[in-house]
């Protein structure tokens, strides 16, 4: 049901009801419209309310998308009106300041809990509140930055061989073949001069001295 027909048919967005809910009752939702300011009315009356100074008592109206649903109303979409009275303004303001936000914004998450009071004269409701600012993609125009061109990916390094992964050093290609019975790894680690000397010694008869 659209806003015009909701008004015509006597529907519209429900207001949060603190009176019929106990201490601890909490409302949580995302802000769907720009908050509005309007003058308060006297309790249980349509008469506008004023401070003793003559200044009008003002309140903030916030529309929240909540998880609440009225089982008797098939058209209930969960939207609720939260009336932020002067007494509720202090905890809401502190919740906004706590995260460094500038105020209530569309997309922000607001939670308000009744923590005390009966609502009667001399015993007003007391509240606690938390606020989460809307999340904005830093790379979007809303985040104040134009998207940057994609940078070409750096070439991937060659995958290590199985031997390298296990910490095994492969023998380097050498001009002098490894003699029979020698460890190829140890052979590859020897200086070429020493390889030549060993190869020469192994090629000589056993009674010849080793030339090093």
Walkthrough of the structure:
The protein is an alpha+beta fold. The protein has two domains: 3-134, OB fold (Dihydrolipoamide Acetyltransferase, E2P) (Beta Barrel), CATH 2.40.50; 167-203, no CATH class. It contains five helices and seven strands. Strands 1, 2, 3, 4, 5, 6 and 7 form a seven-stranded mixed β-sheet that branches. The radius of gyration is 40 Å and the shape is rod-shaped. The model is unreliable at 6-10, 140-150, 161-174 and 206-212 (pLDDT under 50).
Largest sheet: 7 strands, mixed
Backbone structural class:
alpha+beta
Strand segment tally: 7
Whole-number count of domains:
2
Beta-strand content: 15-25%
Q: What does the overall shape look like?
A: rod-shaped
In the CATH hierarchy, the architecture of the largest domain is Beta Barrel
Write a compact overview of the structure shown:
This protein has 212 residues and is α+β, with helices and mostly antiparallel strands. Helix content is 19%, strand content 19%.
């Amino acid at each position: 049901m659209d806003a015009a027909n909701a008004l015509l048919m006597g529907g519209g967005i429900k207001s949060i009801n603190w009176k019929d809910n106990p201490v601890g009752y909490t409302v949580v939702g995302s802000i769907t419209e720009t908050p509005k300011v309007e003058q308060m009315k006297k309790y249980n009356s349509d008469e506008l309310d004023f401070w003793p100074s003559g200044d009008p008592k003002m309140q903030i109206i916030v529309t929240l998308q909540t998880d609440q649903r009225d089982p008797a109303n098939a058209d209930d979409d969960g939207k609720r009106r939260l009336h932020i009275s002067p007494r509720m303004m202090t905890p809401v303001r502190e919740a906004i300041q706590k995260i460094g936000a500038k105020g209530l914004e569309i997309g922000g998450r607001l939670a308000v809990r009744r923590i005390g009071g009966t609502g009667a004269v001399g015993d007003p409701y007391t509240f606690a509140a938390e606020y989460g600012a809307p999340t904005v993609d830093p790379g979007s125009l809303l985040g104040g930055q134009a998207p940057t061109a994609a940078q070409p990916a750096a070439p991937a390094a060659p995958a290590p061989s199985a031997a390298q992964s296990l910490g095994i050093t492969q023998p380097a290609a050498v001009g002098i073949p490894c003699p029979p019975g020698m460890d190829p790894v140890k052979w590859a680690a020897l200086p070429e001069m020493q390889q030549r000397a060993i190869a020469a010694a192994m090629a000589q008869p056993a009674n010849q001295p080793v030339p090093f």
